[in-house]
Specification:
single chain; about 230 residues; alpha+beta; six-stranded mixed sheet
Length: about 230
Amino acid sequence: MGRQGNSSTRGTASSASGSRNGSGAPRTLSDAVVYRRRRLFVGVVVLMVIAVVLGGFAAGGAFSGNSEQVSSTDSETGAGASPAAPTESPSEAPSPTPTPAASPTCDQNLVTVSAATDKPAYGPDENPLLTLKVTNGGKMPCEVNIGTSQMEFLVTSGADRIFSSRDCQAASEDLVKTIAPGASETANFPWPRNRSVEGCEPIDAKPGGGGAYYIFTAKLGSKASPKAVFQLG
């Protein structure tokens, strides 16, 4: 009877020990894994918080840099300038622009017109060559319109208007040239010893010869030459 009781007690102890070793050991291993996972999760969260804080500082620093740049631009343009703004050094100050001196201009009063013929007298079968000459008597170059729109070859005899190159001029044009100081431009007109009237109306009368004297006047715009006298035989 006593042996049976001891055997039962050992069986119970053995059964209890088996229960701890069989089901208790897995529960203890699972708790450790869960604990380690929780520590790992907490560590990741802490790292994320640190990253967010550092990112916030970085963003704040970038914004501050942009704010300073805008403030610098305002001071350069004069908007919201502060008394503490740096002043330019003398070496950086722009040098004053010199006032340009007035350039000399052409004196049109010194531009003269003269008249000449190739001969002082002509025979009955010779046609006079009339020459208009423009001279710049100034010290500066002058722009002068020497086109047919400005010039006129006029032949008179006393109060009688004999001929004008304007009467039958087919077309007129401008011709602006720069004449150097002391230089001249010339234009020649061969006169066929005929009469003309304004509007180029036909006229049969001809200037007389036989040693009569005629006057040639060259005109350019409002300028007129001294008289050039020649003789027709």
